[in-house]
Write the C-alpha coordinates for this entry.
Amino acid sequence: MKIAIVCYPTFGGSGVVATELGIALADHGHEVHFITYKQPVRLELLHSHVHYHEVTVPTYPLFQYHPYELALSSKLVDMVKLHGIELLHVHYAIPHAYAGYMAKKMLAEENIHIPMVTTLHGTDITLVGSHPDYKPAVTFSINNSDAVTSVSQSLKEDTLNIFDIRKKIHVVPNFIDVEKHDNPYTDCERELMAEDNERIITHISNLRPVKRIGDVIEIFDRIQKEVPSKLIVVGEGPEKLFAEELCEKKGILEQVMFVGNSSEVLKILCFTDLFLLPSESESFGLAALEAMACGVPVISSNTGGLPEVNIQNESGFLSDVGDVEDMAQNALSILRDDAVLAEFKTKAKKIAQKFDTKNIVPMYEEVYAKAMKEIVI
Protein backbone atom coordinates (compact mmCIF):
# COMPACT_ATOMS: atom_id res chain seq x y z
CA MET A 1 0.00 0.00 0.00
CA LYS A 2 1.19 3.55 -0.76
CA ILE A 3 0.51 5.74 2.29
CA ALA A 4 0.96 9.49 2.82
CA ILE A 5 1.58 10.53 6.44
CA VAL A 6 0.99 14.14 7.48
CA CYS A 7 2.22 15.24 10.91
CA TYR A 8 3.99 17.95 12.87
CA PRO A 9 7.72 17.25 12.43
CA THR A 10 8.70 18.28 15.96
CA PHE A 11 9.77 16.65 19.25
CA GLY A 12 6.12 16.42 20.35
CA GLY A 13 4.44 13.07 20.90
CA SER A 14 2.20 13.17 17.82
CA GLY A 15 5.13 13.76 15.47
CA VAL A 16 7.21 11.05 17.13
CA VAL A 17 4.41 8.48 16.90
CA ALA A 18 3.62 9.37 13.28
CA THR A 19 7.28 9.05 12.33
CA GLU A 20 7.76 5.73 14.12
CA LEU A 21 4.55 4.45 12.55
CA GLY A 22 5.76 5.36 9.07
CA ILE A 23 9.09 3.60 9.63
CA ALA A 24 7.32 0.49 10.96
CA LEU A 25 4.92 0.48 8.01
CA ALA A 26 7.89 0.68 5.64
CA ASP A 27 9.42 -2.32 7.43
CA HIS A 28 6.14 -4.13 6.72
CA GLY A 29 6.61 -3.48 2.99
CA HIS A 30 4.39 -0.41 2.56
CA GLU A 31 5.57 2.63 0.61
CA VAL A 32 5.42 5.63 2.95
CA HIS A 33 5.49 9.30 1.98
CA PHE A 34 5.93 11.90 4.74
CA ILE A 35 4.45 15.24 3.68
CA THR A 36 5.16 18.18 6.00
CA TYR A 37 7.00 21.49 6.24
CA LYS A 38 10.22 20.01 7.68
CA GLN A 39 11.80 16.59 7.93
CA PRO A 40 10.50 14.90 11.11
CA VAL A 41 13.12 14.83 13.87
CA ARG A 42 13.17 11.03 14.15
CA LEU A 43 13.01 10.30 10.44
CA GLU A 44 16.05 8.67 8.89
CA LEU A 45 15.75 8.41 5.12
CA LEU A 46 17.92 5.31 4.78
CA HIS A 47 15.01 3.12 3.74
CA SER A 48 13.93 2.24 0.21
CA HIS A 49 10.26 2.50 1.18
CA VAL A 50 10.41 5.88 2.98
CA HIS A 51 10.12 9.21 1.18
CA TYR A 52 9.90 12.81 2.37
CA HIS A 53 8.24 15.70 0.54
CA GLU A 54 8.61 19.22 1.90
CA VAL A 55 5.66 21.61 1.93
CA THR A 56 6.85 25.11 1.04
CA VAL A 57 4.65 28.08 1.89
CA PRO A 58 5.13 31.15 -0.35
CA THR A 59 5.33 34.43 1.51
CA TYR A 60 3.37 37.42 0.28
CA PRO A 61 3.00 40.84 1.94
CA LEU A 62 -0.75 40.45 1.51
CA PHE A 63 -0.89 37.66 4.11
CA GLN A 64 -0.39 38.44 7.78
CA TYR A 65 -0.34 34.67 8.42
CA HIS A 66 1.10 32.28 5.87
CA PRO A 67 -1.60 29.92 4.46
CA TYR A 68 -0.01 26.57 5.39
CA GLU A 69 -3.28 24.62 5.02
CA LEU A 70 -3.63 25.79 1.42
CA ALA A 71 -0.04 24.84 0.57
CA LEU A 72 -0.42 21.47 2.31
CA SER A 73 -3.64 20.62 0.44
CA SER A 74 -2.02 21.47 -2.88
CA LYS A 75 1.09 19.43 -2.04
CA LEU A 76 -1.06 16.43 -1.09
CA VAL A 77 -2.87 16.60 -4.41
CA ASP A 78 0.40 16.80 -6.35
CA MET A 79 2.02 13.90 -4.45
CA VAL A 80 -1.03 11.65 -4.73
CA LYS A 81 -1.06 12.09 -8.49
CA LEU A 82 2.71 11.84 -8.90
CA HIS A 83 3.29 8.77 -6.71
CA GLY A 84 -0.06 6.98 -6.91
CA ILE A 85 -0.67 7.33 -3.17
CA GLU A 86 -3.62 5.22 -2.06
CA LEU A 87 -4.36 6.49 1.47
CA LEU A 88 -3.85 9.63 3.55
CA HIS A 89 -3.09 9.29 7.26
CA VAL A 90 -3.21 12.68 8.96
CA HIS A 91 -2.08 13.16 12.56
CA TYR A 92 -3.74 16.02 14.43
CA ALA A 93 -7.16 17.29 13.49
CA ILE A 94 -5.99 20.90 13.22
CA PRO A 95 -4.97 21.72 10.52
CA HIS A 96 -4.12 18.39 8.93
CA ALA A 97 -7.54 16.73 8.71
CA TYR A 98 -8.99 19.95 7.34
CA ALA A 99 -6.24 20.18 4.68
CA GLY A 100 -6.61 16.48 3.92
CA TYR A 101 -10.33 16.85 3.32
CA MET A 102 -9.74 19.69 0.85
CA ALA A 103 -7.16 17.57 -0.96
CA LYS A 104 -9.65 14.71 -1.19
CA LYS A 105 -12.27 17.02 -2.72
CA MET A 106 -9.80 18.40 -5.28
CA LEU A 107 -8.72 14.88 -6.22
CA ALA A 108 -12.34 13.76 -6.56
CA GLU A 109 -12.79 16.42 -9.25
CA GLU A 110 -10.27 14.40 -11.27
CA ASN A 111 -11.98 11.11 -10.42
CA ILE A 112 -9.26 10.11 -7.90
CA HIS A 113 -10.80 8.75 -4.72
CA ILE A 114 -8.64 7.87 -1.70
CA PRO A 115 -9.56 7.41 1.97
CA MET A 116 -8.31 9.64 4.79
CA VAL A 117 -7.57 8.29 8.26
CA THR A 118 -7.40 10.91 11.03
CA THR A 119 -5.58 10.22 14.29
CA LEU A 120 -6.45 12.39 17.29
CA HIS A 121 -3.58 12.97 19.69
CA GLY A 122 -4.79 15.29 22.45
CA THR A 123 -4.41 19.05 22.37
CA ASP A 124 -5.92 19.09 18.88
CA ILE A 125 -9.11 18.08 20.70
CA THR A 126 -8.96 19.16 24.34
CA LEU A 127 -7.20 22.52 23.93
CA VAL A 128 -7.02 23.91 20.40
CA GLY A 129 -9.90 22.02 18.84
CA SER A 130 -12.40 22.86 21.55
CA HIS A 131 -11.87 26.61 21.07
CA PRO A 132 -15.04 28.21 19.62
CA ASP A 133 -13.06 29.60 16.67
CA TYR A 134 -11.96 26.10 15.61
CA LYS A 135 -14.66 23.77 16.92
CA PRO A 136 -16.91 23.78 13.79
CA ALA A 137 -13.93 23.04 11.51
CA VAL A 138 -12.65 20.25 13.79
CA THR A 139 -16.10 18.66 14.01
CA PHE A 140 -16.49 18.82 10.23
CA SER A 141 -13.01 17.37 9.61
CA ILE A 142 -13.51 14.43 11.96
CA ASN A 143 -16.95 13.60 10.64
CA ASN A 144 -15.69 13.72 7.06
CA SER A 145 -12.71 11.44 7.68
CA ASP A 146 -13.08 7.90 6.37
CA ALA A 147 -11.71 6.48 9.61
CA VAL A 148 -10.83 8.06 12.95
CA THR A 149 -8.49 6.79 15.67
CA SER A 150 -7.55 8.15 19.09
CA VAL A 151 -4.48 7.29 21.13
CA SER A 152 -6.41 6.42 24.29
CA GLN A 153 -9.87 5.56 25.54
CA SER A 154 -9.79 8.73 27.62
CA LEU A 155 -9.22 10.89 24.53
CA LYS A 156 -11.99 9.10 22.68
CA GLU A 157 -14.41 9.90 25.49
CA ASP A 158 -13.26 13.54 25.59
CA THR A 159 -13.79 13.85 21.85
CA LEU A 160 -17.30 12.44 22.03
CA ASN A 161 -18.13 14.76 24.94
CA ILE A 162 -16.75 17.92 23.31
CA PHE A 163 -17.86 17.46 19.70
CA ASP A 164 -20.94 16.23 17.84
CA ILE A 165 -19.21 13.23 16.30
CA ARG A 166 -21.03 10.80 14.01
CA LYS A 167 -17.99 8.68 13.12
CA LYS A 168 -16.85 5.60 15.00
CA ILE A 169 -13.59 6.28 16.82
CA HIS A 170 -11.12 3.39 17.06
CA VAL A 171 -8.72 3.38 20.01
CA VAL A 172 -5.22 2.60 18.76
CA PRO A 173 -2.73 3.37 21.53
CA ASN A 174 0.66 4.91 21.09
CA PHE A 175 3.53 2.47 20.82
CA ILE A 176 7.29 2.03 21.03
CA ASP A 177 9.82 -0.37 19.54
CA VAL A 178 10.82 -2.30 22.64
CA GLU A 179 14.01 -3.63 21.03
CA LYS A 180 15.33 -0.09 20.54
CA HIS A 181 15.03 0.50 24.28
CA ASP A 182 17.33 -2.33 25.35
CA ASN A 183 20.27 -0.87 27.28
CA PRO A 184 23.40 -0.83 25.07
CA TYR A 185 25.36 1.49 27.35
CA THR A 186 28.09 0.73 29.88
CA ASP A 187 27.97 1.63 33.56
CA CYS A 188 30.88 4.05 33.19
CA GLU A 189 28.65 6.37 31.16
CA ARG A 190 26.35 6.75 34.16
CA GLU A 191 29.13 8.64 35.92
CA LEU A 192 28.49 11.56 33.58
CA MET A 193 25.12 12.07 35.26
CA ALA A 194 25.46 11.13 38.92
CA GLU A 195 27.61 9.66 41.66
CA ASP A 196 27.40 5.95 42.46
CA ASN A 197 25.34 6.59 45.60
CA GLU A 198 22.84 8.89 43.85
CA ARG A 199 19.53 8.02 42.24
CA ILE A 200 18.78 9.55 38.84
CA ILE A 201 15.35 11.13 38.41
CA THR A 202 14.24 12.27 34.95
CA HIS A 203 11.54 14.44 33.42
CA ILE A 204 11.04 14.81 29.65
CA SER A 205 8.60 17.27 28.08
CA ASN A 206 8.19 20.47 26.08
CA LEU A 207 8.12 22.37 29.39
CA ARG A 208 4.73 23.97 28.78
CA PRO A 209 2.54 24.95 31.75
CA VAL A 210 0.39 21.84 31.26
CA LYS A 211 3.43 19.70 32.18
CA ARG A 212 3.63 21.33 35.64
CA ILE A 213 7.41 21.60 35.74
CA GLY A 214 7.07 23.38 39.09
CA ASP A 215 5.61 20.17 40.52
CA VAL A 216 8.55 18.22 39.11
CA ILE A 217 10.93 20.48 41.05
CA GLU A 218 8.81 20.29 44.24
CA ILE A 219 8.72 16.48 44.08
CA PHE A 220 12.44 16.24 43.46
CA ASP A 221 13.20 18.65 46.29
CA ARG A 222 11.36 16.34 48.69
CA ILE A 223 13.12 13.26 47.27
CA GLN A 224 16.65 14.66 47.50
CA LYS A 225 16.20 15.60 51.16
CA GLU A 226 15.93 11.88 52.01
CA VAL A 227 17.69 10.07 49.15
CA PRO A 228 20.82 11.42 47.40
CA SER A 229 19.62 12.20 43.88
CA LYS A 230 20.13 14.08 40.65
CA LEU A 231 17.32 15.41 38.44
CA ILE A 232 17.72 15.50 34.65
CA VAL A 233 15.23 17.71 32.77
CA VAL A 234 15.06 17.03 29.03
CA GLY A 235 13.32 19.51 26.73
CA GLU A 236 12.86 23.17 25.94
CA GLY A 237 9.88 25.39 26.52
CA PRO A 238 8.37 28.49 28.12
CA GLU A 239 8.60 27.15 31.69
CA LYS A 240 12.34 26.42 31.62
CA LEU A 241 13.42 29.75 33.13
CA PHE A 242 10.79 29.44 35.86
CA ALA A 243 12.07 25.96 36.68
CA GLU A 244 15.68 27.14 36.85
CA GLU A 245 14.73 30.03 39.14
CA LEU A 246 12.74 27.70 41.39
CA CYS A 247 15.74 25.36 41.67
CA GLU A 248 17.97 28.29 42.57
CA LYS A 249 15.48 29.50 45.15
CA LYS A 250 15.43 26.08 46.79
CA GLY A 251 19.21 25.77 46.66
CA ILE A 252 19.19 22.63 44.50
CA LEU A 253 20.36 24.05 41.15
CA GLU A 254 23.62 22.06 41.30
CA GLN A 255 21.61 18.84 41.60
CA VAL A 256 19.49 19.55 38.50
CA MET A 257 20.70 19.21 34.90
CA PHE A 258 18.74 21.02 32.16
CA VAL A 259 19.94 19.33 28.96
CA GLY A 260 17.53 20.82 26.38
CA ASN A 261 16.22 18.85 23.40
CA SER A 262 18.69 16.02 23.72
CA SER A 263 19.34 13.40 21.04
CA GLU A 264 20.52 11.02 23.78
CA VAL A 265 17.19 10.37 25.47
CA LEU A 266 17.63 6.60 25.45
CA LYS A 267 21.04 6.87 27.13
CA ILE A 268 19.56 9.10 29.83
CA LEU A 269 16.60 6.76 30.38
CA CYS A 270 18.80 3.67 30.53
CA PHE A 271 20.48 5.04 33.67
CA THR A 272 17.35 6.62 35.14
CA ASP A 273 15.85 5.22 38.33
CA LEU A 274 12.53 7.09 38.31
CA PHE A 275 10.52 9.14 35.81
CA LEU A 276 8.30 12.07 36.86
CA LEU A 277 5.25 13.13 34.84
CA PRO A 278 2.87 15.18 37.04
CA SER A 279 1.01 16.72 34.07
CA GLU A 280 -2.23 18.68 34.23
CA SER A 281 -3.44 16.57 31.31
CA GLU A 282 -2.05 13.82 29.06
CA SER A 283 -3.98 12.19 26.25
CA PHE A 284 -1.69 9.16 26.51
CA GLY A 285 1.73 9.76 28.08
CA LEU A 286 4.24 8.61 25.45
CA ALA A 287 7.19 9.89 27.50
CA ALA A 288 6.09 7.65 30.38
CA LEU A 289 5.85 4.65 28.06
CA GLU A 290 9.34 5.25 26.67
CA ALA A 291 10.66 5.40 30.22
CA MET A 292 8.90 2.16 31.14
CA ALA A 293 10.33 0.46 28.05
CA CYS A 294 13.78 1.27 29.46
CA GLY A 295 12.79 -0.30 32.78
CA VAL A 296 12.05 2.98 34.56
CA PRO A 297 9.10 3.17 36.99
CA VAL A 298 6.86 6.22 36.69
CA ILE A 299 5.40 8.66 39.18
CA SER A 300 2.57 10.50 37.42
CA SER A 301 -0.74 12.25 37.80
CA ASN A 302 -3.89 10.20 37.17
CA THR A 303 -5.21 12.41 34.40
CA GLY A 304 -6.33 11.53 30.87
CA GLY A 305 -4.80 8.40 29.38
CA LEU A 306 -2.03 8.00 31.97
CA PRO A 307 -3.87 5.32 34.00
CA GLU A 308 -4.06 3.29 30.76
CA VAL A 309 -0.25 3.28 30.56
CA ASN A 310 1.13 3.65 34.10
CA ILE A 311 -0.44 0.89 36.16
CA GLN A 312 -0.87 1.69 39.86
CA ASN A 313 1.59 -0.12 42.15
CA GLU A 314 3.03 -2.08 39.21
CA SER A 315 4.85 0.23 36.79
CA GLY A 316 4.73 3.04 39.34
CA PHE A 317 2.15 5.19 41.12
CA LEU A 318 -0.59 7.66 40.19
CA SER A 319 -1.72 10.68 42.25
CA ASP A 320 -4.18 13.52 41.87
CA VAL A 321 -2.95 16.47 39.82
CA GLY A 322 -0.97 18.84 42.04
CA ASP A 323 -0.56 16.42 44.97
CA VAL A 324 3.22 16.74 45.09
CA GLU A 325 3.42 15.38 48.64
CA ASP A 326 1.77 12.10 47.66
CA MET A 327 3.92 11.83 44.55
CA ALA A 328 7.07 12.42 46.58
CA GLN A 329 6.14 9.79 49.16
CA ASN A 330 5.34 7.29 46.40
CA ALA A 331 8.69 8.06 44.79
CA LEU A 332 10.54 7.52 48.06
CA SER A 333 8.75 4.20 48.63
CA ILE A 334 10.38 2.99 45.40
CA LEU A 335 13.79 4.64 45.72
CA ARG A 336 14.71 3.85 49.32
CA ASP A 337 15.20 0.11 48.76
CA ASP A 338 17.28 -1.44 45.95
CA ALA A 339 15.15 -4.60 45.87
CA VAL A 340 11.89 -2.64 45.61
CA LEU A 341 13.34 -0.46 42.85
CA ALA A 342 14.51 -3.53 40.93
CA GLU A 343 11.04 -5.07 41.17
CA PHE A 344 9.35 -1.93 39.86
CA LYS A 345 11.88 -1.69 37.02
CA THR A 346 11.09 -5.24 35.93
CA LYS A 347 7.33 -4.71 36.05
CA ALA A 348 7.54 -1.38 34.20
CA LYS A 349 9.37 -3.00 31.30
CA LYS A 350 6.93 -5.91 31.19
CA ILE A 351 3.91 -3.59 30.97
CA ALA A 352 5.60 -1.53 28.24
CA GLN A 353 5.88 -4.65 26.08
CA LYS A 354 2.09 -4.60 25.62
CA PHE A 355 2.57 -1.40 23.60
CA ASP A 356 5.30 -2.80 21.37
CA THR A 357 5.27 -1.90 17.67
CA LYS A 358 4.49 -5.45 16.62
CA ASN A 359 1.25 -5.37 18.65
CA ILE A 360 -0.01 -1.92 17.62
CA VAL A 361 1.00 -1.37 13.97
CA PRO A 362 -1.25 -4.23 12.75
CA MET A 363 -4.16 -2.37 14.35
CA TYR A 364 -3.44 0.59 12.05
CA GLU A 365 -3.14 -1.73 9.06
CA GLU A 366 -6.57 -3.12 9.90
CA VAL A 367 -8.03 0.40 10.01
CA TYR A 368 -6.40 1.18 6.65
CA ALA A 369 -7.77 -1.95 5.01
CA LYS A 370 -11.30 -1.21 6.19
CA ALA A 371 -11.10 2.43 5.07
CA MET A 372 -9.84 1.34 1.64
CA LYS A 373 -12.69 -1.13 1.32
CA GLU A 374 -15.37 1.36 2.33
CA ILE A 375 -14.24 4.37 0.26
CA VAL A 376 -17.28 5.85 -1.47
CA ILE A 377 -16.75 6.70 -5.16
Notes: The chain is about 40% helix and 15% strand. Residues 42 and 165 are 33 Å apart (CA to CA). The longest strand covers residues 31-36. The radius of gyration is 22 Å.
